[in-house]
Amino acid sequence: MDLQLDQLRALDAAISEGTFEAAARRLSVTPSAVSQRIKALEDAAGRILVQRTKPVQPTDSGLAVLRLARQIALLSGDTARELGDAHNPTDRPVRIPIAVNADSLQTWVMAALGRASAGVNYEIHREDEEHTTQLLRDGTVMAAITSTAAPVQGCSVRRLGAMRYRPMADPDFARTWFPDGPTAKSFALAPVILFDRKDDLQFRLMRRFTRKPLDQPRHYIPSSSGFVEAIRLGLGWGMVPDLQRRPDDTLIPLDDTTFIDVPLYWQQWKLDSPTLSRVATTIAEAAAAALL
Asked: The HTH lysR-type domain covers which part of the protein (predicted)?
């Protein structure tokens, strides 16, 4: 296939920005030019690559070409910086899309990204650590913090460490709902806080105490800091990472010996990219300092 760089950039921009109009602004061309370039790319590929919806969505074939487009963009940016003046403020930063789970983003990842920020524009996708690999597979991100040890096809994997979670509650809540500590009966009745409907951590803990599914009252709080604050306010109990506990915190564990360690891994595309390698190194260093 004869794939042109400007056509690949148009595809990347359209899917990243969601509309041809927004893609045109990013590329400093007209929406008609974006449409023509994508049509020419589809003609070269011999198949439809995008669904003309709002937002624009890639087809299965489009995902394959999108991965190529983003790999070329990353390597092209690295090469341009290597050939040019690294201190020239007009150099366009390399865009690095990364999938990160909410608790890591809230606690230790941002400091790492800050140390590797020179020449990089981050696009962070917040996703549960058990689901971030899907964003790697479909080309949405170049790297991900994930709980999956098996490498995604075309990716390398590095163990970062583990985040320890404990079942925590406000003291009054614990006395009311867990007078005898964590038991199957208490878990069946006590309100629980969940991050979202992908959050399985609380259920993993409860399965240690009961063999049957529970349908207890539950709150969904899709914010890492809001999740912990809801527990502090006594709305329910939930699994709180040790990294989010404050020295003056009033929260108490339901059981001093009960916890879940969630292993975390860094997966990234197998590309010889100095920029991506620099980001990976700073992530690994921060993880070594923060995680188990």
From this structure: 1-59
